[in-house]
Amino acid sequence: MDIVVGQRVAPQVIFAGPMGVGKTTAMRAVSGPEKLEMDVRSLEANQEMRAHGKTTTTAGFDYGECSLPDGRSVVLYGLPGQERFELMWNMLTPGSAGIVLWVFGDRADGGEICAAWLRALARRHACTRLVVAVSRLALAQRDEGVRAFAALARHFHPHAAVLAADPRAPEDVMQTLAAVLSAPAARFLAG
Ligand SMILES: Nc1nc2c(ncn2[C@@H]2O[C@H](COP(=O)(O)OP(=O)(O)OP(=O)(O)O)[C@@H](O)[C@H]2O)c(=O)[nH]1
Ligand SMILES: [Mg+2]
């Protein structure tokens, strides 16, 4: 029997966000065997990322299929984080049922980067479900960090859900998926 990849009825969720935040890592954490990665060796992976073992960047997209604990299936697409591959953003973003935007919670420019991504997504998707997943927040800073990103995200999307999540932890990634599927869809606001 031929193997058929893809589940036509499953909602498609996009993992978006800057280079190195953990979109491919998150996809790997929850996907079953039917997955595809298009990473290439990268000069851009900076020293900090190399220290954590990241030497590649996504030049195309990630594809994965995931079953949630309640039995629902989700198809995942991970965007490339670098703007030079924005052709993929144009192709994949408009068709998605929901977006998980992964952001850096430990960088001084994390808010700015998050706002730039929200603008880029708003240009490509009029109405969607949105979760902002804040990575790398120390436990003591979690509440404050989530509050700060929530205020920013709601500038751009009235029903954005914001949570702290580690893209390496399958249970955290599952939580972002459950959150995006249960969030109300809404139009992006002019931010
Ligand atoms: N220390 C630490 N490392 C993390 C955390 N989250 C992710 N990482 C690491 O950061 C790197 C993320 O790499 P990728 O998943 O390839 O990032 P990406 O978002 O797909 O990047 P591009 O495809 O280049 O846009 C991996 O080496 C992860 O192990 C975290 O919370 N703490
Ligand atoms: Mg990637």
List the helices and strands and how they pair.
Elements: E1 12-16, H1 23-30, E2 39-41, H2 47-51, E3 56-58, E4 62-67, E5 73-78, H3 86-92, E6 98-104, H4 110-124, E7 127-135, H5 142-156, E8 161-164, H6 170-182, E9 186-187
Parallel strand pairs: 1-5, 1-6, 6-7, 7-8
Antiparallel strand pairs: 2-3, 4-5, 7-9
Helix pairs in contact: 1-6, 4-5
The structure holds guanosine-5'-triphosphate (GTP) and magnesium ion.
Magnesium ion binds next to helix 1.
Described by strand count, sense and barrel closure, the largest sheet is:
7 strands, mixed
**Head-to-tail CA distance between termini:** 50 Å
Count every helix, treating DSSP H or I runs of 4 or more residues as helices. 6
- Name the bound molecules: guanosine-5'-triphosphate, magnesium ion
Query: How much helix is in the residues?
Result: 25-40%
Instruction: Tell me the β content.
Output: 15-25%
Second-tier CATH architecture: 3-Layer(aba) Sandwich
Total number of domains: 1
Low-confidence stretches: none
- Provide the CATH topology: Rossmann fold
Order of helices and strands: EHEHEEEHEHEHEHE
Determine the oligomeric state from the structure: single chain
Radius of gyration: 16 Å
In total, the number of strands is 9
Which whole number gives the mean pLDDT? 92
- Annotated CATH homologous superfamily: P-loop containing nucleotide triphosphate hydrolases
Q: Which structural class should the secondary elements be placed in?
A: alpha/beta
The first-level CATH class name? Alpha Beta
Shape: globular
